[in-house]
Amino acid sequence: MDKTPVASVSNPSSDPAAGVRTRRILMVASLGLALVIFGYMAFGGLGDELIYYWSPTELLDAGETAQSASIRLGGLVVPQSIVRGDDGLTLDFRVTDGDTEVPVRAETVPPAMFRGGIGVVLEGSMGADGVFDTTRLMVKHDNEYKAPDTEDNRSIKELVKSMQFETTDT
Amino acid sequence: MKKMHAFGLVGLALIIVGSIYGLTASPPERHMGDVSRILYVHVPTAWNCLLIYLFAFGFAIASLWTGKQRWDIATTAAIETGVVLNILLLGTGMIFAKPTWGIWWDWDVRLTTSLIALIFYAAILALRTFIDDPNRRATLTAVTCIISFVDVPLIYFGVRWWRSLHQIQSSPETMAETMVFPMRVNAFAVLFISIWFMLLRARIERSKLESDEVVEPPVRRAMATA
Amino acid sequence: MAPEGVIIGGWSYVIAAYVLVGVVLAAYAAHLIARTRSLDARRRRSDDRAETSVGDS
User: What was the ipTM of the complex prediction?
Assistant: First the structure.
């Protein structure tokens, strides 16, 4: 069942060749537009402008300008740094990117997977006291799915890779 | 017609096998526990969603290049199946996110681009209902489908190019064999089911177009002479 | 006491995910089959009508 252009109210052109030409021009144009949009998204440096989370190093480098702004901080929870408050409400720990550590305070119950050595993405703001106050604690786990009897022998440096801190430019 | 149902039956058999294995035989993940079993439905729907959108992209190019109606039929069938899978990947994804990440949703690149895809492709289907002329409808469908496809590589590669909440792709190296197995079985299951959906949907579209053409010409002739 | 960083239970999430997938796939399949059947029925009816009108002319 061919779709040859027929003279009608909606398509006044009765020349089949014009229909073919128009369609093919549209095809090239839409592919071209798609390529341009894709190129911009992938290579246009968007990653620098729309950073999903800051690393501890970036946060400290920003100094006072980062304070009291609502941002996302990403990092690996430093093992053995977790301190739960006596009231059961506060949670103190440190996050690292392998180079710098930032202390964090959370007033939320963390997700079950929260532990030393796991990645986290924290929404909140840096206080003047140098402690990041977070209101939303998200766990960012890595791409490993293993059976219960397998041990995880990775170092902090290896685990930090899952935080993708090197992806500021594409 | 009967032959196309084989795809559905094979898909059904595979998804039963894969799911039973995934729910009982594969081990709980060392950190996620039994929640990891959501993987065996989340990942298959996600992979196939992107694959079906890729098919739609190819069909759309063919539709514009040849002008033949069968490619518009194929494009429509693929988009609709893709939208169903897109809904499933987002739904299972959110159900997976709550116990693992701790939240139902966040605007990272993987989730955001996946939602954008659903909005764009569903919009194409909605747009089709507003255009009566099959030629213009086919052209518009193909053009919007090609442009919407820009989002698909962003969904897949976005987690590698930008920082995200969603982790990067796993591989057989990072995943236990007893977990890879049900995931692969269900991936093929959803593929067969998706092919069956597309074949059925294409047949329906073809019937609709045939009956529209029976109705239309007298109307056009009347308008031309008016 | 649960070991640190491990999810215990969570079966309600697993069931919810599998049920969602099962229900949506089954519903869409049923929808497609129903539409196929009604189109077949309509075609059979118009075929019958075509045969009788040919006979009448």
Answer: 0.91
